[in-house]
Amino acid sequence: MGIDAHTTGDGQDAQGNQSDAVVATAAERARRRDRAVRAAVEQGIVGPEAPVVGLLDVEGIRESARGLRDAFRAVTRAPVLHAFAVKATPLVPVLRLLDTEGVGAEVASAGELALARAAGVPPERTVLDSPAKTEAELREALALGIAVNADNPQELDRIDALLHAPATGRTGAYAATSPTPATRSPIGIRVNPQVGEGSIEALSTASTTSKFGVALKDEGARDWVLRTYAQRPWLTRLHAHSGSQGMPLELMARAVAETYELAEEINRRAGRQQVDTIDIGGGLPVNFHSDADEPTYARYALLLAETVPGLFDGRYGLVTEFGRSLLAKHGTVLARVEYAKTAGGRAIAVTHAGVQVATRTVYAPTSWPLRIAAYDAKGRPRTGPAVVQDVAGPACFAGDLLARGRALPRLEQGDYAAALDTGAYYFAHHYAYNSLPRPGIHGFTRADGEVRFATVRAPQTLEEIVEEAGGAHLSALTDLDRTTSADDPS
Ligand SMILES: *Cc1c(COP(=O)(O)O)cnc(C)c1O
Questions:
Q1: Among residues 292, 322, 352, which one ends one of the domains?
Q2: Is 434 left (phi over 0), alpha (psi -120 to 50) or beta?
Q3: By alpha-carbon position, which residue is closest to atom 1 of ligand 1?
């Protein structure tokens, strides 16, 4: 393969130190963020009227998409579809941006599919996963020609029925002689190689008892998979996604290796390349401790090529489904410090960013710590001695803290606190506690020497909050039991 992990841009040298390129990228990323915060304050993107916003670094997103493409191009000549896991950042302009970078969409609900379609992601670059696909969702995906990964035998029964019922009237039981069905959708099965858990249980999808996919090591499961592919020549893909954040790379690579071995076995039995594409899922962990990409896509691709060389010899097309690693480092929550106070000797900055934009961090602070950067009222990085302080959110419960006991330059009233690395699974995942509005999200780039912003998502208005809280059904409950004797059926 001619791949040398020590020289091929894997982000680390032989001693495991970050490469100069990774360090330089990180420094430039931090500079762009500082400039954007300053400009956001100067241009009124954030301020008393908009005390919390999400910022997205367009250049950074493009850079990560390129890094992903290049990493896999370096290890295989076979076609690779990179499908962004929409759940990580379900924002139409983000999907559009990624599409222009050649990155498609992995969707897991009717809503996510609607977002991908609204963004113009073509069906051939869209993949439908999800453990609970309804018949209607399956029908739509097959009609559109979107790739589908069946989660379990019952779902495959439904696909059988959808593909063959119109012609034969049959459902359920499937005969080996069935013709290739009339859909352009590539269809596969999701398997769970059961390689084990990472450090965050809720995100470990390859545990023994994970709810996802066909649990390969369960009794009879592997035979069922082999039989099922033998009976259905149109099953051409195999899918595994072994988890997100907290999974060691080696465990992820092992799950891919297990999936590859299964594909090889299916193909040996078929006497041909029946499985022509392996979907290796996403899950590259993100470094929440600095601006550096660590691990890099290049490092993961090289590890895969070393662990599973056969997967990269050109016989298999690949699908990837990265989410967090594409967007996390390019998002910043920027929140105004409304009040600075002390309690029991502890300095507390009460900001407008809390549980509504950083739900995971607030409810599971040890699993999801966030870096906080301090800026002054003009948006300049705050300097000064570090003071141990809490950075609190606006919600009415004591645990609503972005950071506890964090040593930072002391935040003053009118300053700004930035929660970093929040481009995935944070501000795009609004939690409506206290009827706090969804904040506006703004993309930024540099043009003609200054920072230019564009609205990605407008802030939620009070009218929208009332409407979403049933405002149109004002008297629904008071009228329900107020029946007149004329129309009372009793
Ligand atoms: C969530 C998910 C992904 C993306 O995971 P990340 O950790 O964000 O990369 C990919 N595939 C499937 C099936 C998922 O559920």
A1: 322
A2: left
A3: 85
